[in-house]
Amino acid sequence: MGFKVLLADNDANYLSRLGRALLDADYLLYPAESKEVALEQITEHDIDAAIIDVNLAGGVAELLEACINKSKPLVTMGDLPLKETKYLIDIMYYGIPYVKKFSNEGAIKLDNIIARMNALLKTLLIFSNNKEYQLGVLAGLKSKGYKVFVAEQAEDLIHTFLLSEAKAVLVYFPKDEDLQEIAKIRKMDSKVPIAIVINNQQGDPDRQISDEATKVMPQDKLADYLKEI
Questions:
Q1: 182: three-class secondary structure by DSSP
Q2: Chain CA centroid to CA 105, Å
Q3: Which residues make Cβ contacts (< 8 Å) with residue 2, sequence separation at least 6?
Q4: Which are the contacts of 170, defined by CB distance < 8 A and separation ≥ 6?
Q5: Which domains does the chain carry?
Q6: For residues 67 and 46, what is the distance between their CA atoms, to the nearest angstrom?
Q7: pLDDT, tens digit, 9 for 90 and up, residues 177-211
């Protein structure tokens, strides 16, 4: 995946084990054992997401606020059930996922945390003029664990993009006027990956967007593209 993830936890053993698991899942790791170091990581490295222990040394209120202000996907974790943590109100108010670090039997829980992060970073926005084809695409992406938002009309792309905070935009068989709406997304966000999917026999559409983060590809190349972003 290559996503840059801040992992903030002052439990060195847990930090090491979860950090190795994140690296094995192809994330880029930015560890921090205190609030101060975590804030430096957010400021200096433009992280994509964060996993934060609510018992982090120095407190986490400022850290949560920094991530939320920068619209960074966020997972919180702790030793206790959510209702017993001091940040219950903040976590529930902002709808932040929370995961217990250990099972009731004391077993360390890594898969649940990584699964939550995967879900947060696999959010897609799709649009197609072919609604029947779009339904098939939607079902296929959801079966692979993607959270998918759909723009029903090309003019809905901007609004839905802002609402979804999508990590990539997939546009199937666009018309020239659709590309004008896609260009508006690019002006708003210069880095979000945009894939313009064409029929395998179709030529390259009239390019109104030309940058490294926008790719034009036939249908049979999309699966490989999704693995890379």
A1: helix
A2: 31
A3: 26, 27, 28
A4: 124, 125, 126, 127, 137, 194, 195, 197, 222
A5: 4-120 (3.40.50.2300), 123-228 (3.40.50.2300)
A6: 11
A7: 898 899 999 999 888 899 999 876 655 555 556 68
